[in-house]
């Protein structure tokens, strides 16, 4: 029993030491800030969130421990009031030494990532200062932006395995991202794929991966529109319940109703049986077809619903919800939304309920 107790205590001690080791230590001094409050913030992709506060000693020195798991470095920023006085990118076990003042000038030793982050932060600060200096010179501001954008592109290409690329990717210029071009999605994809090989568990890398996926979908839509054969409506191509891609442009019907809906909404689900099915059965023999796009992330539930209701028209869903290229292409902002394509052209006549739809179909499909 005594030996078992010793083993148990040894295990507990080992776990405690392991937990304590999941951290980085910041030691520093803030000039002209004795007995002052310093706000600790952490990066939440492209915004800051308050994590803690600390108080400097009479000589402006401080010590702070940051929880950092293995393989998941953390971005930590120190603020004196509204002024950011230091930025750090900390790996597990690092002991960073910060020398700062209340104006935002600082140096970091003992942390390679933090030293590199300081360069990134300075480049962005210099860019914003240049814009402010040229506020009355639009041409100069444009030149400043182009130069900084090119520098950002060069940086993320030359540092594919550094987490310091994450704040670069998410830099903002007012309400707009610095990386605002459609083709920037390719850079995001390359950056996320490279970082995943080194930091697969990092929440920052996962966020970059999601943004890369979103941007690549938008780029795909843009390329489809640009490369599509001449048509009077944007084409979309989505999988049906069998997984086969069904293109809107390939629907052979005189009148096509494109119907965007949400399977998770009971009212919209019943609309298929109570409203659309009777109209479909009446007008389908005359040249009417429905191309029904479900805006849902639950494809199995959608497929089960469609098959269970035995809906006879074209039913498609890509499982991307509001991020679906189809939603983006047709700028769908509310559900359900329907419109008609008549003889290859989008009709400008609004569909006003079941009665309005039947009246329009009766006129078009005599």
Structure notes:
By secondary structure, this protein is an alpha+beta fold. Helices cover 42% and strands 26% of the residues. It has ten helices and 17 strands. The protein has helices at 2-21, 112-133, 138-158, 165-169, 184-196, 203-227, 266-283, 299-309, 325-329, 353-364; strands spanning 23-31, 37-44, 47-55, 61-67, 74-80, 83-90, 95-101, 106-109, 172-173, 176-177, 237-239, 245-247, 255-261, 288-294, 314-316, 337-342, 345-346. The strands form five sheets. Strands 15-14-13-16-17 form a five-stranded mixed β-sheet, covered by helices on one side. Strands 4-1-7-8 form a four-stranded mixed β-sheet. Strands 3-2-5-6 form a four-stranded antiparallel β-sheet. A hairpin with a 2-residue loop joins strand 5 (74-80) and strand 6 (83-90). Helix 2 (112-133) runs antiparallel to helix 3. The longest helix has 25 residues, at 203-227. It is elongated and about 90 Å long. Residues 12-19 have low confidence and may be disordered.
């Amino acid at each position: 029993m005594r030996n078992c107790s010793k083993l148990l205590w040894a295990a507990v001690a080992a776990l405690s030491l392991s937990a304590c080791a999941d951290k980085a230590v910041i030691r520093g001094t803030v000039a002209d800030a004795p007995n002052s409050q310093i706000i600790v913030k952490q990066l939440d992709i492209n915004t800051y969130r308050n994590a803690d506060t600390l108080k400097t000693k009479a000589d402006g020195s401080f010590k702070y421990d940051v929880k950092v798991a293995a393989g998941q470095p953390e971005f930590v920023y120190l603020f004196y009031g509204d002024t950011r006085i230091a930025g750090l990118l900390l790996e597990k076990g690092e002991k960073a030494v910060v020398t700062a003042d209340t104006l935002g000038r600082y140096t970091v030793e003992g942390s390679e990532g933090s030293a590199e982050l300081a360069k990134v932060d300075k480049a962005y600060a210099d860019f914003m200062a240049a814009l402010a200096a040229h506020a009355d010179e639009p041409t100069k501001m444009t030149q400043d932006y182009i130069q900084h954008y090119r520098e950002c592109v060069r940086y993320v290409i030359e540092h594919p395995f550094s987490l310091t690329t994450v704040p670069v990717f998410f830099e903002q210029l007012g309400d707009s991202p610095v990386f605002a071009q459609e083709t920037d999605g390719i850079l995001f994809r390359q950056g996320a794929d490279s970082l995943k090989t080194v930091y697969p568990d990092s929440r920052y890398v996962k966020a970059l991966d999601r943004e890369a996926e979103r941007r690549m979908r938008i780029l795909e839509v843009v390329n489809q529109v640009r490369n599509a054969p001449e048509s009077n409506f944007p084409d979309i191509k989505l999988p049906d319940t069998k997984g086969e891609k069904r293109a809107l442009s390939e629907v052979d019907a005189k009148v096509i109703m494109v119907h965007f809906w949400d399977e998770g909404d009971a009212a919209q689900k019943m609309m298929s049986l109570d409203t659309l099915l009777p109209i479909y059965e009446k007008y389908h023999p005359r040249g009417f077809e429905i191309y029904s796009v479900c805006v849902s992330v639950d494809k199995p539930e959608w497929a089960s619903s469609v098959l269970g209701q035995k809906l006879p028209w074209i039913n498609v869903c890509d499982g991307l919800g509001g991020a679906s290229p189809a939603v983006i292409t047709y700028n769908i902002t509310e559900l359900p939304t329907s419109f008609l394509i008549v003889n290859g052209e989008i009709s400008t006549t609004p569909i006003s309920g079941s009665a309005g739809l039947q009246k329009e179909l009766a006129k078009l499909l005599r």
